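Standup notes
- DV: blocked on the single-chain target, sequence here:
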Amino acid sequence: MNLLEIPHDPRASWAGYALRAWLFAVIPSLIYFFALVFIGVDSLRPPARALDITFASYSILAAPLLETALMYALASLLALILPQKERLRVVLLAAICALAHKIGGGWEQVIASSWPFLIYSVTLTAWMKRSKSAAFALAVVVHVLYNATFFLVGVIGAFLTLRG
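- DV (later): unblocked, structure below
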């Protein structure tokens, strides 16, 4: 499936696209995370404060909204600068957004966020052709689902490390 191609039917399911995009983003990221856990570079134990309700709300809801708003503005600018270079715009948008994560987490965070930001960038770019509001909403939904998945992994990890 090519995520850059959205169904031609205007009644095409947002939910179906969001689910596919979320799976495309989260499955490789989970494999990467669990590989790091397996080799001892990372841990199932979530970082301090990660399960705090304020931090969780920010991570699951606020961050996707804010980051997608910034991505949307940048995607719009890139569309003006590189109108015929869709794939290049996707890669540049994802790279810039992943690199922005170096501020809060270093190169490990850049590497870990590169793949999901590529999927969010594809979602924005593909759906902006049909509807700018749909593009924004879908990218937010995919990002929220992704962050919620990793929050759930943190909850499970905290439970497992307390028991072990």
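- Follow-up: The CA atoms of residues 59 and 147 lie 7 Å apart.
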